[in-house]
Design a protein that fits this description.
The chain contains 13 helices and eight strands. With about 290 residues, it is α/β, with parallel strands linked by helices.
Length: about 290
């Protein structure tokens, strides 16, 4: 799917100081992505703090992003969980007409076997009216979706079109690129190894740092897709310290502080997350000033 090549970003959910959803700030953030070279937007992923949003708030976020985007970029919706029946029921009942695809995380906490992961995504693929991007993030799910399982799913279901691979393992990513069927997209879910993955044949990234510095990060990915490695690595090393910093004290606390420094939203996060401390805030502020 050409529309999912390049740089996608996992949008934050901005909050006001009273912890309510800040729709004006969300609109500003969407416009910032569109105007600075981002290729598609991911709504209600982990970075959106979707675990702490109630049903009405999720609907508000979806509505706000659709209206702010106004058809300019492809949209991907996060629809996943560790209750297979609940996920498939949502897919059957939700209006997905505004979305190019869904992003569905491998079941967390339950720690299913590889066969359990396969059967979960078989059910998701059969229920979804739009293409499915698998999401492997062992650091959050406590289980690793192995390349053999991903490749099996990619071969068995035409609407499983991509994986967001966030194991942080370049060798595993290369095994996916090597073994996946033609047209299946291997998308980086780890900002730090995005460029090596792209140069190895990956399709791009679903990024966190990319929404803070969309112009530079999307240019890096585009140069990587064009195999202009030296130019791309200049941008990678320019941004590398910020990638470490935004994840140092939890996501999205770091990226929200960058947005605060850019004047796009407050840095408010919901418990159990807390704001970055004073030391990290100072380093992030200094980095934003250097990049501007």
């Amino acid at each position: 799917m050409q529309s999912l090549t390049g740089t996608g970003v996992a949008l934050v959910t901005p909050f006001k100081k009273d912890f309510s959803v800040d729709t004006d700030a969300l609109t500003k953030i969407v416009n910032y992505q569109v105007e600075n070279g981002i290729n598609y937007l991911v709504v209600l992923g982990t970075t959106a703090e979707s675990a702490t949003l109630n049903k009405d708030e999720k609907e508000l976020v979806i509505k706000t992003v659709i209206e702010a985007n106004a058809g300019r970029l492809p949209l991907v919706l996060g629809v996943g969980g560790n209750n297979t029946h609940e996920v498939t029921e949502e897919l059957k009942n939700r209006d997905l007409s505004a979305f190019t695809a869904i992003l569905s995380v491998s079941p967390y906490y339950n720690k299913p076997t590889q066969e359990g992961i396969y059967q979960h995504f078989k059910a998701v693929a059969e229920a979804s009216p739009v293409p499915v991007i698998l999401y492997n993030v062992p650091g959050r799910t406590a289980s690793n979706m192995l390349p053999a399982t991903v490749i099996r799913l990619a071969n068995d279901f035409e609407n499983i079109v991509a994986i967001k691979e966030a194991a942080g393992d370049i060798v595993q990513a290369m095994r996916l690129i090597q073994g996946a069927p033609k047209g299946f997209l291997v998308i980086s879910g780890d900002d730090m190894i995005t460029l090596p993955m792209v140069l190895a044949g990956g399709a791009g990234v679903i990024s966190v740092i990319g929404e803070g510095f969309p112009k530079q990060f999307s240019k890096m990915v585009q140069l990587g897709l064009e195999k202009k490695a030296d130019e791309a690595y200049e941008l990678h090393y320019l941004l590398a310290d910020s990638i470490d910093m935004i994840f140092e004290q939890g996501n999205p606390a770091g990226i929200k502080h960058i947005f605060k420094a850019l004047g796009l939203c407050e840095d408010v996060v919901r418990l159990p997350l807390v704001n970055v401390n004073e030391d990290l805030a100072g380093r992030l502020n200094a980095f934003v000033e250097k990049i501007r």
